[in-house]
Amino acid sequence: QVQLVESGGGLVQPGGSLRLSCAASKFTLDGYDIGWFRQAPGKEREGVSCISHSGGATYYAESVKGRFTISRDNVKNTIYLQMNSLKPEDTAVYYCATTLGDSITVTVSTRGIPRCGFGSWGQGTQVTVSS
To answer: What pLDDT sits at residue 54?
Structure first.
């Protein structure tokens, strides 16, 4: 069974930074799409960023492009999301996710094209951007 454990969320002022981490176990990251999506209260899930299993390409939602950076450490079987220049609209629960699962229910898309699909995710970590 896939295990993904997120950490690093918290309260930060607008313009600040946070670094999320996601430790994976019972599978290796390499070979699967891996990334992050978020969900704010009353809103739909939004694919934020991902690393494609195909060639390791990275993708970002337009709402975070230029501010967030995704990375992967294959030795530690961990991915990260560096979030800079945070805005109040970034407030959400952030989930680490991967392709493994019964069905793909969340995607990261750019220009309307799905780039990565997620079928399993962790319990999430809260990010709150507020002064």
So the answer is: 82
